[in-house]
Amino acid sequence: MSIDLNEITALMQLASPALPIGGYSYSQGLEAAIDSGLVRDAFTAESWIEDVFLGVFARSEAPLWLLSYQAWKDNQINDVRHLNEYFLASRETSELRSEAEQMGWSLLQIAQSLGWGGDSLAQLADIKPLSLLIAHTYACLHLNIQSQNGLAAYAFSWIENQVAASLKAIPLGQVAGQQALTKIRLLVPEMVEEAKRRAKSDLSMVDNFSPMLAILSSRHETQYSRLFRS
User: Fold this and answer.
1) pLDDT (tens digit per residue) in 74-120
2) pLDDT band at 1 (very low <50, low <70, confident <90, very high)
3) Which of 76, 149, 182, 222 suits 141 as a labelling partner, its CA being 20 to 30 A distant?
4) SS (HEC) of the chain
5) Is 103 left (phi over 0), alpha (psi -120 to 50) or beta?
6) Class of residue 218 by CB neighbours under 10 A (exposed 0-12, middle 13-18, buried 19+)
7) Which domains, from first to last, does the chain contain?
């Protein structure tokens, strides 16, 4: 079976920590979980990341990613706008929403600077405020990345940022971090299948119910000492 090396390298570019969209500055509630004592070592950090990945990301953000990719592919701009609004509305705290908007804006600047999509860039720039999810699906489509591969790259970036936040805030050793990264990245195929199943029913099976994460994220907004912006 032939391998499209251009697709692989495009995936590497989008998933790279060197992509300047600011992902390293956010923990998505993990730092608040550490401050509260729920996460305190390698085992609890790994459990937290896995639970959020399969229990929240796979049920909400991932199917929305697939729906957004398909809407871009079908040139259904109204659907893209609706999904962008839906995703931003699903961010339960001001920090989480600001994170999605800031990273979306940053990826738009990269797409414009590198000319991803040519004339269609105007459609992306016209979506305000723009979420990272919508900008990322646009980038994947116009870099000729298949949908499930693009979602896998999006998920890996999320996992890697969570592990990196754990390394800084607990802190963990580098080997412990790589062990957690290895275990959780092996769950990506399971996550993709769950996302596909939920995306088949449009928005009716998208579910971001996660009260503990929302509470911790809210607490983080007034946390006395912190390293991260969320």
Assistant:
1) 999 999 999 999 999 999 999 999 999 999 999 999 999 999 998 89
2) very low
3) 182
4) CCCCHHHHHHHHHHHCCCCCCCHHHCCCCHHHHHHHCCCCCHHHHHHHHHHHHHHHHHHHHHHHHHHHHHHHHCCCHHHHHHHHHHHHHHCCCHHHHHHHHHHHHHHHHHHHHHCCCHHHHHHHHCCCCCCHHHHHHHHHHHCCCCHHHHHHHHHHHHHHHHHHHHHHHCCCCHHHHHHHHHHHHCCHHHHHHHHHHHHCCCCCCCCCCCHHHHHHHHHHCCCCCCCCCC
5) alpha
6) middle
7) 28-220 (1.10.4190.10)
- The two tokens of residue 159 are 């996992």
Name, in order, each residue with C-beta under 8 angstroms of 97's C-beta and a sequence gap of 6 or more. 88, 91
As given in the structure block, the two tokens for residue 46 are 């790994």
- What integer pLDDT is reported at residue 187 of this predicted model? 97
User: Mean pLDDT in the chain?
Assistant: 94
**With contact defined as beta carbons under 8 Å apart, do 104 and 130 qualify?**
yes
**How far apart are alpha carbons 136 and 107 in whole angstroms?**
7
Give the residue carrying structure tokens 């992902």.
23
Q: What is the CA radius of gyration of the chain?
A: 17
Q: Taking residues 55-68, report their average pLDDT.
A: 97
Distance CA 219, CA 32 (A): 7
- 158-193 residue pLDDT tens: 999 999 999 999 988 999 999 999 999 999 999 999
Nearest to 218 by CA among 36, 12, 19: 36
